[in-house]
User: Fold Transporter from Paraburkholderia hiiakae.
Amino acid sequence: MRGRGTRGFQLAPAFDPGGRRMKMMSRTAAPHVALAAIPAAVLLFALSQCAQAQALQSQSVEDRLNTLMRVVDEQQRQIQSLERQVTNLEMAQRGRGMPGAGAPDAASDATVAEQPGADGLPVPLPPLAQALPGATAPGALTGTATGVPVNPPSPDAGTTNGATGTAASSGPQQGAPVGVNPNGSPTVGETQKSAEPSRTQAEEAVVQREHAPLFDHKLTLDWGISDSYYDRRQLQLSGFLALDAIFLGNINLGQTKSHQITADLDTRYGLTDRMSVDVDVPYVYRHSSFIVGGAGGSASTLSDASVNSSDIGDVNFGIYYQFLKETNNMPDVVGSLRVKTPTGSSPFGIKVQQITPDNTNLVAPSKLPTGTGFWNVTAGLSVLKTYDPVVLFGSLSYTYNISRSFADISSVIGQTEPAEVKLGDIIQFGGGVALAFSDKDSASISYTMAIEPQSKTKAPGGTWTGVPGSETTASVLNFGLNHVVNKHLTINGAVSVGLTPDAPNFVVGVRFPYTF
Assistant:
């Protein structure tokens, strides 16, 4: 029996027709079972749909309304979250806002994420920064949804970030904060952006024109051209009073019309995010017409003459420093110090000559000056505050004219009169408002007044003597339009109207600042 059992045990694995038959039957029956399960699944799905439909029909109108309101509230929260994330990305691209500021509320996002899909509500969307190509994964180097780190990297390049355990490379990092070089130092114009409110391009154009240079730009070329028009009429008396009541002599009405066209190039360069320097090189063309009566001895007969001159003007240069950066509560305060050189032709020593032989009243200078002939230093302070879409600005400056000695200040032909001349120091102040009516266009209106006291002259070895009629008060009303062509080029147009006789009748100009 033991031998037979042993042989049966050995023969079973080698020949088992019954076992093989069972395996073949199971393989053949599997597809039939799967096919039979399909109608069952369809039946179950139909039954579940019917059950859900019966459940919805059993709900009251108030329950349905509450469910709909929850869906609407959830969608509104998602829209607000997306808007915050888009705003953060825009701020990061502009370099505005403190890193980490304005990030979506983590508490509200966590509340939404606690019940994804509950009560039929839509599943919350992921942060926008995670959906963008190349965005850093959560917990890597980012502290906000915009991918901007909350803490700047340490100045030691190549060290390990202790917060994340990620080794820093020697090159630029993807998670580096906006406006920070690989060595940890801020680039020009980036550190103050964190404190400034966001401005539109139109508001930036107003800042550049009315306030100070844009410190966040390394280089700016500002070319402009303007036309100043003067029209002066004066009564000319040539004679004397008899018996203190009767005038004996000639009475003539003189008129002077003058155009001064100035084309200049102002080059500005940013040294740091708070300091900028510039140099302005003007070229001046002047045309004046003189009209005087008295030709042929008749007061009613007029004679005229014209004089043209062109030359380089007074080159000036300056430095700007930003004392305060604009915040939500504080204005932008910038100080400036400018120096003007006497590179233009001086008005002193130009001789006045008779133009026509039949009219002794018609006299005109042989040429027209293109500069003041003096060195001067101007210290100024300007203030600007943005209340989107309104920009308020104001300025105050003091100009000190340095006295200078001239070999001849006389305008009479054949006469030489050396003297030292001191122009009056000028106090200028003004203010205005600009309105940005689109992202690229703005309009401004401002008022400016300049007060200059009496000028003085001193002969060699003498004392200072005032020049009669040299005290001036120039008041001007300015209107401006700004249009931003693109991120580099802006067009600024301006019209100024003189309100006092010492100011030009009007000034029309246009400027084209180009920033790199």
